[in-house]
Amino acid sequence: MSEVDGADDGPGEGGNQGGGGGTDSGPAPDGGTGGGTGGEARLGGWTRFVTARPRLSLLVALLLTALAVVVGSGVADRLGSGGWEDPTAQSTYATRALEREFPASQPNLLLLLDAGRSSVDDPAVAAEARRIAARLAAERGVTGVGSYWQSGSPALRAGDGHEALIAARLTGDETAAAGTLDRLAPSYRGKSGPVEVRVGGPVAVRHEMQTTIKEDLTRAEMIALPVTLLLLVMVFGSAVAALLPLGVGIIAILGTNAVLRALTEVTDVSVFALNLTTALGLGLAIDYALFIVRRFREELAGGAPPRAAIGVTLRTAGRTVLFSSLTVAVSLAAMLVFPQYFLRSFAYAGIAVVLLAAAAALILLPAALMLLGDRVNSLDLRRLFRRGRPDPTGGGAVWGRMASLVMRRAPLFAVATTAGLVVLGLPFLGVKFGTADDRQLPSGAESHIVQQHIRDGFPGSPGGALEVLAEGSATETEYARYKERIAALPEVLRVDGPLVKGDAAYFSVLPKGEAVDEGAQRLVGELRAVDAPFDTSVTGTAAVLVDSKHAIADQLPWAGAFIAVVTLFLVFLLTGSVLIPLQAVLLNALSLTAMFGAVVWVFQDGHLSGPLDFTSSGSIETTLPVLMFCVAFGLSMDYGVFLLSRIKEEYDHTGDHREAVRFGLQRTGGLITAAAVILAVVMVAIGTSRVANTKMLGLGVALAVLMDAMVVRSLLVPAVMRLTGRATWWAPGPLRRFHDRFGLSEGEAPKPAPDAETVPDGTPETVPEPVPGTAVVPGRDRAEARG
């Protein structure tokens, strides 16, 4: 990678060298509509705004960033670790009713007592266990304490007789329960007389997961920042230029933390959203700053003064950044249609960080560039290692030759690439959806150890029982008959209850298998179908999973339609074509197949679990594929906009479809690759997390980004566009007129004359009249002259 590595938004493109002549198809971020010639371009309102008082702009930004640090401090402590349930589902209603009426029905704290070589029925062990249970019952914030030594329930005793459980419920919401756990756990875990006590249960799993994520996020940032800076120095050469994208990213991250902190005052936000904030804050901010700083430096190299160079940069690269941020925000906004706050949290964080990154790139970055001027090229560290004169093409010629090769063999590349991506995605056909549990944590985590002991050594699935809430007056006989019907179901191991309170009662139903396996999920439907003379509702881990899957399935078509329709519209505004938006959506979706196939093969089936250090649960958490699709699709569109805007600009200049594709890839191939590698580094840093879901998100999206940049953009897009030919740019009359009036594009050069005759290779035989201040060279010769 080098400064001009295939991403030469060079002087003269976009109309001219420092000004941009010709017409413009729509408003630019700087408020201008093109125009101007020579070194002093006509400056639009936005350019005047961001360059009028650059020191004041940066000072205000510094103050706002400092305020964001204050507001966003401690945000992780206010975030939740749940959010997978549908708040309107039957299971959620039953859970809340049981918490209110029968708090002991849903224990969230488990103490695993290990008697070593002794039996849990040994008198000394039993006496100590009863003492611990009595002490726990007297604690503030604890209710519903029960144990094997109190009830004699075989479900609370291990099969080998050496371990047994004390169950309790910590009252309050997630934050209150976590506070109680922090207060109590140190005084209960460890050696206590003849027993060893370990602390587990859902509240311990959630709390340990939240703590682990905060620690891992700090480590990921420490990995990502220096590596990213090194890569930026390799791309730009100048240490000064390399620091600018990093600064934009840090501002976006700190600003988003403040937004999330404010949102916690009005809604629940998942702690997992912090990972997306870091990844997108660094990744997208660096993408946008790369594009803008690169263009600014090239305008300076062409002789433009700083203010004029900023004007051209905002009208060209700035417009592309604006479009890119909108497409990414649209993909992330689709998660708002889902009821689970886990998914909605990623929409909050993602939209905020994308818009803040774009705003910093379009407001603060131009102000900094205005102050720096030619000093943006200072501290060229690459000259220490460079021998001889640098390659003037910066490697762009390599991308141009690749594009030519792909288009010469377009059918072969299109079929082979598509087939390869489909094959990589085949493992996803065997996906099994589950819920996040203790196996998300490292194998040495205490709550994971407790749950693993329960899975391996206890009958049924203690803590994974299904609860049936019965509401309405009923007699003992009616309760007994209903209990008999439940016990007769094939997936039921045991039924306990009823426990009656007024006109309400509940039954505890223990499945034969694990808490969320397919049998337990079938049992949920069977329980809800059992005839009863009173109202019933079912909850429990499996019931929450079933309801979550239904909620996602119900909303998924709406989310997909929203992403597709808005993306089609935005890409149409950019290109004026009917076919290109369809290609963009379909090829972007195809680029994600490798990610989904890898997720199932690695994380569900457990391949590479050793090297990657995680425990496979045999399923994929239900919301993760939705999240990964929205994030990866948005990032793919980010790179797609970069490529398409440059192809469109060249096509507007020459009318030569094939040359436009070749030239677009030549000019953006290196930039897209550099941006993808940097973003992948950030995502891999996130993927070093010890929490399996975060590891899956980071590594999966990193794979998707690299596949999109290096396979889809480099091979599939030019092959498909070569096959569709000049028809690629067709639009019916009404849509063409709509685009002429409202459409936006990076280029500012005139479009080819609509009546130009074409020869078989697509090159116009007539050349549009040049606009004053521009040099229009026919077809390939002109492009090579500028290349």
UniProtKB/TrEMBL annotation:
Keywords: Cell membrane, Membrane, Transmembrane, Transmembrane helix
Residue ranges of the TM segments: 56-76, 223-252, 272-293, 321-342, 348-373, 410-429, 558-580, 585-604, 624-647, 668-690, 696-716
Keyword Cell membrane: yes
GO CC term, one of those recorded: plasma membrane
InterPro entries for the chain: MMPL_dom, Mycobact_MmpL, SSD
Residue ranges of domain SSD in the record: 246-371
SUPFAM superfamilies: Multidrug efflux transporter AcrB transmembrane domain (SSF82866)
Membrane topology note: Multi-pass membrane protein
Name of the featured protein: MMPL family transporter
Annotated source species: Streptomyces triticiradicis
